[in-house]
Design a protein that fits this description.
alpha+beta; Double Stranded RNA Binding Domain; 7 helices; elongated
């Protein structure tokens, strides 16, 4: 059984012409670029970054346009805790997520940053989904590049299903403020709006709050005492 597409390492350099027509892609076709300033990057560290970010962010890859990992020697020959790792994740339709950490060596600084960047990307995508600015990826588009989408359940493969929110809305009638009856009159009767849980409320919140204060038992007792 192959590696899950949601855990596959990110790709290296991808030609710009291919990126323009690729659209949404999983990690094996999402570019990850390296930048270094004042130090050299070990090939083993490059492999570690590709594999680790694929494990951390591979499940969000269809929403990610590209990633950049930059290492910088901030103190130069003075030594000390001077290696900074900056991870930038460009998400389609949302502001980019940028995380920076500083440590004594490139590996340690990256290990500190990759944990933070997963939480930051998860939070940004979760908020966008909650506000309807970002849709979910359909499961049928998961199997690509010869990598299995997920492990099949016991008893056979499971077909693609819509999200829970979509399934909950299926079959439910649309709510309306006023339910008109089949009568000759142009305005609805009292019966059509009576006992309606979602009927339109008059006035605004301040007016309703003041009305409740006036009708409260303590307010009525106070008015009665003043009349005496």
């Amino acid at each position: 059984m192959g590696r899950s597409i949601k855990r596959a390492p990110f790709a290296g350099a991808i030609p710009r012409a291919q990126r323009r027509v690729a659209g949404r892609t999983w990690a094996p076709r999402t570019p990850l670029a390296f930048r270094a300033s004042g130090l050299s990057i070990d090939p083993k560290l490059r492999e570690h970054v590709h594999r680790r970010l694929g494990w951390r962010l591979g499940k969000f890859a269809p929403h990610i346009e590209r990633l950049t990992v930059r290492f910088e020697d901030v103190n130069g020959p003075r030594g000390g805790v001077d290696v900074a790792c900056r991870i930038k994740v460009v998400i389609g339709g949302l502001p980019s997520v940028v995380v920076s950490e500083v440590a004594a060596n490139p590996l340690e600084s990256f290990d500190r940053a990759d944990d933070r960047v997963e939480r930051a990307v998860r939070r940004a995508i979760g908020r966008a989904r909650a506000h309807g600015r970002l849709d979910r990826v359909q499961p049928r588009a998961m199997a690509r590049q010869g990598v299995t989408a997920s492990r099949p359940r016991a008893g056979g493969s499971h077909p693609a299903r819509p999200s829970t929110a979509v399934r909950n809305l299926q079959g439910r009638p649309r709510k309306a403020t006023v339910a008109l009856e089949g009568s000759a009159r142009s305005r609805p009767s009292r019966k059509s709006t009576r006992r309606s849980a979602n009927r339109a409320k008059h006035a605004n919140k301040l007016a309703r709050r003041q009305q409740r204060r006036v009708a409260a038992p303590t307010a009525r007792r106070s008015r009665a005492s003043r009349k005496r």
